[in-house]
Amino acid sequence: MEYHLVLEKYKNLCYSSLGKEYLDSLHPYNVDAQQELSYVAELCDFVRANGYPSSDAFIDVRHILQKVADGLLVDGEEFILLLRFLIGVKSLKEIFKTQRLLTLQNSVTNLVLKIGNYDEIIERIKQVIDENGKIKDSASLLLKNIRNEYAETLREIRKRVERFISQHQNLLQEATYTIKNDRYVLPIKANERGRLKGIVHGSSSSGSTLYFEPEELIPLNDKLRILTEEEAKEVARILRELTSKVFDRLQSLLGDIEVLKRLDGLFAKTRYVIEKGAQIIIPGGNYLKLSKAKHPLIPEDKVVPIDIELPTDKLGIVITGPNTGGKTVSLKTIALSIILARSGFPVLAGESSRIPDYDVYVDIGDSQNILENLSTFSGHIVNIVRALKLADENSIVLIDELGSGTDPYEGSAIALGIIEELIARRIKFIVTTHLTPVKLYSMSHDKLITASMEFDPETLSPKYRILMNIPGASHAFEIAQKYGLDESILQRAKEHLDEEHVRIDELIKSLNKHISELEERKRELENTLREYQRQKREFEEKYKLLKIKKMEEFDRELREVYKDIQKAKRDLQITLQSKNTESEQLIKKRLKEIEGEVKHIEEVQEKLEKVFYETALSEEEKTIGVGDYVKLIDGTAVGKVVDVKGSKVIVDFNGIKLEVKPEKLKRVATQTVVTSGSSQSKTEITNEKRIPTKVYSSPLTKNEIDVRGMTVEEAVEKIDEFIDQLLMSDFTTGYIIHGKGTGKLATGIWSYLRHDKRIKNYRFGRPDEGGVGVTVIEI
């Protein structure tokens, strides 16, 4: 199965040993696959929006915490590593704090936000230890005094050394000093020892030089040693105090590391999804369908995806085909996909894949075991017996080369007996075989599906793809001929085949060839369709972005117009205060200009609403004809289009007929009974004369507000209060959900935001934030 090798692929994507340990611990019987894969899906959205977090939050500091637990002193360099870790954790929490998933109880965001606050430890480490892991002079007053005194003593020693050298230069081997046994000494000539008072601390290898401590340096060297010891004691005290702070939070740290261990593993799975194109498939039900499934260990440029399907009304699949055709790899791919999904891992398969929540029992490969005196056949039987003993209706049994390793006649009988036992006990299974009786049995049984490995008869080479509902030929004669077996031998061999066998084999080969050609054509068409769909999505996305860009351009234009109006107001005030006799004419001129600006605003506002309408509704909703049921986008009443009159349509609302522009309507599928809703006012909302009031409200628990269904006035009132709460919260970003509709509500909200000085910036949401149905504000 090579499961451990597959697991290494995921582990290599972890930040540290923490995640690797977590992934090693997962298997189908100890993990909630649904929760695990839901977390991975959430992190995929997180990474696409924010990128991957720093690796510092996942540094393995357990060896440091073990020292703390054992009562040992943590040194400066270890504290710097711990500091990096704690700052990384803090940064990770801050990134997740901005996520809109904050309100979901069962989410990765809440998992991360439950991690403890270690600001006190972070600040204390920063105060005490420098970036090189050394204790700062400012760590304590005593340490500062000791180091100042040490520096002063050192200066005095060097001063006296220089004086000694200048006075006794003729007695020295060199005009310098050195350090022996942590004491400052000078190299003097051995034959001059009697002329000086002091202590000899050693000699050179030749004996010609003595390392001499002059009498006047002895008390200073003694003082230096005492200060060094005092410094070491104070440093140890400071480190002990810092270690004690960590000890106080030890249990919290160890618990949070378990969360980070899991998070590291989850991010590795997320990388696997994003970088490898894997799918998140939550196992469930009893329907197995693998679409474009790939073996994780085969390189991307060589792997051939397989498609296989075992519906709920079928019990087994029998796969046939030539050797080296890919049967064994296909079985391993199926087994790994199920086991990985059940263990909470994303799998290399297509979006339409479905994986049942089954226990998996496999017999794949050569089971020969010399130590246990088992032949290949015996080894297979031992594995199959174990599978039959443990498997039930919630299991799937995968057997490679069923009935092989012994006499084909007896092997076929045993294989059929095993298949019948599996069918009788309603155990799902997939087996591969070369045996013709097994092949024929599967073709005639209504609970079994026959499949084969695709083979190119022209090149005599396998294509490694599975053909469903088609039996496979072994192609033994063709392969033997390809590899050089003499033609005369092959002819004699064919004489030993009965006519019925030859006829069936030729029929299967012909069918295989025809199906293979159809499959190739199908793949070409699917590739063409995928390319068309990709181009269509790309075009629609670009078209939508262009429309949103146009709307934002209109908004910028409105802002400029408002600035011009404000300037015009100021000019009028200046003119009114002027005594110039021509002021009346000037006032009339400016009033005319303002009227033009207001008209321009109305035109831009109308364009904005029109573009919003085109962006918000699908083509199907905008296509309206006689007989269609429609409703006003701003209302809820449903009517029927009875006629078209010029650029308008006649709509019958329960006996009341109205002429309406098509862009004010939205086509609906069926008529529904609804209550009428209020229309939104066209009054432009500004906050120029709004008197601020202080509102005392509960803390903001989520950074979004839903104003759908409200009038502009109602929405603005709620948004105003929401912005106040946002300012008093830890959030810097807010989400206003106004829906799409005609765009009047969004336009009114933008008109309000345009004048609100509390708002730093605003924009439509990205696709993952709700698109043009959401306005994102920054305060």
Automatic annotation (TrEMBL):
It comes from the Bacteria. InterPro entries: DNA_mismatch_repair_MutS_C, DNA_mismatch_repair_MutS_core, DNA_mismatch_repair_MutS_sf, MSSS, MutS, MutS2, P-loop_NTPase, Smr_dom. Acts as a ribosome collision sensor, splitting the ribosome into its 2 subunits. Detects stalled/collided 70S ribosomes which it binds and splits by an ATP-hydrolysis driven conformational change. Acts upstream of the ribosome quality control system (RQC), a ribosome-associated complex that mediates the extraction of incompletely synthesized nascent chains from stalled ribosomes and their subsequent degradation. Probably generates substrates for RQC. Endonuclease that is involved in the suppression of homologous recombination and thus may have a key role in the control of bacterial genetic diversity. Homodimer. Binds to stalled ribosomes, contacting rRNA. It comes from Fervidobacterium pennivorans. ATP binds at residues 321-328. Residues 705-779 form the Smr domain. Residues 136-174, 490-611 form a coiled coil. This is Endonuclease MutS2.
